[in-house]
Specification:
It is built from twelve helices and 13 strands. It has 382 residues and is an alpha+beta fold. The strands form three sheets. Strands 1-4-5-6-7-8 form a six-stranded mixed sheet, with helices on both faces. Strands 10-9-11-13-12 form a five-stranded mixed sheet, sandwiched between helices. Strand 6 and strand 7 form a beta hairpin. It is globular, with a radius of gyration of 21 Å.
Amino acid sequence: MADLLRLLLRVAEKAANVARVCRQEAPLFQLLVQEKTGDDKNKKFVQDFKTLADVVIQEMIRHDVGAQFPEMIGFIHGEESNKFENGLGESVTVTVCVTEEQTAALLASVLDSDDTAASLLARAIHQDPATIETGTEGLSVPLSPSELGIWIDPIDATSQYIDGREEVLEEGHLSPSGLHCALVLIGVYLRSTGEPVMGVINQPFNYKDPAGGGWTGKHFWGVSCGGVNSCSISRPKDRPDGSKGGGGLSVVLSSSEKQVVKEALVPLCGPDKLMYASGAGYKILCVIQGLADVYVLSEGSTFKWDSCAPHALLRALGGGVVDLTKCLQSGAGTDGHRAELVYHQPHTESQGADRWANQGGLVAYLDCTLLHSVIGGLKGKL
């Protein structure tokens, strides 16, 4: 299944190209700007353009994976519905067609005959990316496509993507907001158990050329199944400040996190080690990269498509993502594996997207000792 990993890296780069094209090509960028300001509310396609960008990325990934691995069709899930209503009240199902021209015609029917925007979008969808260095040589993955399912988050942190703030990435520091937080996430799980076994993360807006102004991206991947644990980046080294001791723990949170959670974590890490960032996928990536020790979320506001891909990378590095509520109920996180998030079963009592929510909140971690510290600090507070 190393072939599947290489395909996912390629389609994630195609997805990143679509995300960049939507910001770099004037006709598409105008639709994003109008989406942000909401000046033209009677035009449904303008209001939904960010969703259309998400959907075309999702359907492109679904199409390309299904073409190479037909036994996975029906198990490739995404965040978005692919049904739209255009300005004439017609229902249009967005799919990737055989030719670029056919895809452009379909998109034009959603975009109220905006042929220029539709053609630009179709060209990006059908354009193969330049060869990317995957680093997967010699990797053998003991899995069959018929055992696997996929979760796609086409653009995680969509609000940051729409706002488009161009923050400068500082080496060794997380970026609280801006385009860096927008990620393409593709996670692979075992249909039988729901375990995340493979993940690809693409950061489309990693570096901006100061001369030409164009963006280049960065990709990350991880595999964790059976005896295979392999990742495109190395496990971060323990910091010399003694982060496994009492005072050096660093935690990344959502800015909207409950005050009681913030107050409970301060004694573990000090207020200067409580950090904030946008996007669930980006916050887990911060843990993967060692920019934060743990990510804590007390609400059930993330979904399977947010966490599946980065969860696989954390597992490959010896960490994981657990259900916070289950850990608190079982006692100080003594058995994190029993509380690990899984990805194959919906919450049957819920409706719509909530069927796939991580309802108990979560903690993403690399080190079990730090997970136990966090669970201990939050015990009795929530």
